[in-house]
Amino acid sequence: MTLYSYALFFHIVGILGLGISVSLEAATVFRLRGAKTTAQIHEWMRINTTLEKVLPISALLVLASGLFMTFTVWGWGQAWIDLSLGMLIALGVLY
Question: How far apart are CA 17 and CA 54, in angstroms?
């Protein structure tokens, strides 16, 4: 296997981590809005502590592997690379 194959694998794992993290965070926010007791709030905030670790790791994994693939194979001539990098930066700013 080449380094590109490993980078692609880590890129896909990072994207899955980002998707799962963002989905769980959205579910947590919606459940917190409907919480009636502090026990329910504590229960849903436990998920948030895990997400605080998983989201940045996934973002760095996506960024590092994506930049590696961009510099070694794809180049900056692809518009979807610019769009993806911009969306990742926007995700970081919003969270």
Answer: 7
Distances (CA, A) of 15 to 21, 33, 44, 82: 10, 27, 23, 16
The pTM score is: 0.79
The backbone torsions φ and ψ at residue 87, rounded to the nearest 5 degrees and listed phi first, read: -70, -35
Dihedral angle computed from the Cα positions of residues 66, 72, 78 and 80, in that order, rounded to the nearest 10 degrees: -10
Below-70 pLDDT ranges, the chain: 95
Read off φ and ψ for residue 18, nearest 5 degrees. -65, -45
Side-chain-side CA neighbours of 26 within 13 Å: the count stands at 7
Each domain of the chain, given as residue ranges in start order, spans 3-94
